[in-house]
Inverse folding.
């Protein structure tokens, strides 16, 4: 089923929902991506669970008339979908930038969320970004967004990554609306310190299913209440590059979340 809702700031948010079953799994894509990046999860997981995939504002089919591309605003997009669907037990799943977004959504949806799963995110929670560093990070994107994206995104892959999939993702992300891409990337960086506080305040388990292609600060993640579980042989797009392993690890986490809530 395809649907739309209106976010608190008036932006129309598109989503799709498949299957039945509790808990519901709500899938949130990363920066300059969209809900189609979860195609290899929707089919298998909807056989057992209700699966909801969302296009955040400015991405996919959702509206672009937003002024502040912040994690709280994106989190409100997720909450705006969950609430009218009357989902009572929810697992929020977020890839990359979607990790901060689902953490923020879990804060906004307290009482409905039983667990959070990150997909190659929360790996650098020990890092602090200064204003000068954020300005430096954003400079090439402000100068030439598409060109900077084409240089940046290839580093998200490994030598063994499928070249056709890699090339499609590079071109797709580089084609994102520059205002959205710039705003969302800067907003995510500026939320980084708040993210640590948000994660620590959550009263539900948080698991990150991450690739080992780049370092993971396991100790910093643990200090924020995040358990990192590693995959090998993939780049950043763990759910697309090795969907079988990712789906198995995701379902294992969901079963743990449900078990933790079961009466003793």
């Amino acid at each position: 089923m395809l649907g739309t809702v209106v976010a608190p700031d008036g932006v129309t948010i598109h989503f799709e929902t498949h299957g039945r079953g509790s808990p519901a799994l709500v899938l949130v894509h990363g920066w300059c991506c969209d809900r189609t990046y979860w195609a290899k999860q929707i089919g298998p997981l909807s056989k057992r669970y209700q699966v909801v995939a969302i296009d955040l504002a400015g991405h996919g089919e959702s509206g672009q008339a937003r002024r502040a591309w912040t994690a709280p605003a994106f989190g409100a997009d997720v909450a705006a979908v969950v609430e009218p669907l009357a989902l009572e037990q929810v697992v929020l799943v977020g890839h990359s930038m979607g990790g901060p977004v689902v953490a923020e959504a879990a804060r906004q949806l307290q009482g409905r969320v039983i667990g959070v799963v990150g997909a190659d995110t929360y790996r650098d929670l020990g890092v602090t970004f200064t204003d000068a560093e954020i300005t430096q990070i954003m400079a090439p994107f402000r100068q030439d967004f598409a060109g900077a994206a084409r240089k940046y995104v290839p580093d998200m892959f490994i030598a063994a990554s499928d070249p056709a999939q890699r090339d499609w993702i590079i071109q797709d992300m580089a084609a994102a609306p520059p205002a959205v891409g710039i705003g969302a990337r800067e907003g995510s960086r500026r939320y980084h310190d708040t993210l640590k506080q948000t994660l620590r305040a959550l009263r539900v388990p948080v698991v990150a299913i991450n690739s080992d292609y780049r370092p993971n600060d396991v100790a910093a993640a643990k200090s924020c209440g995040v358990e990192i579980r590693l995959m090998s042989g993939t780049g950043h797009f763990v759910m697309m590059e090795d969907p079988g392993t990712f789906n198995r690890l995701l379902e294992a986490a969901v079963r743990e979340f449900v078990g933790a809530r079961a009466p003793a």
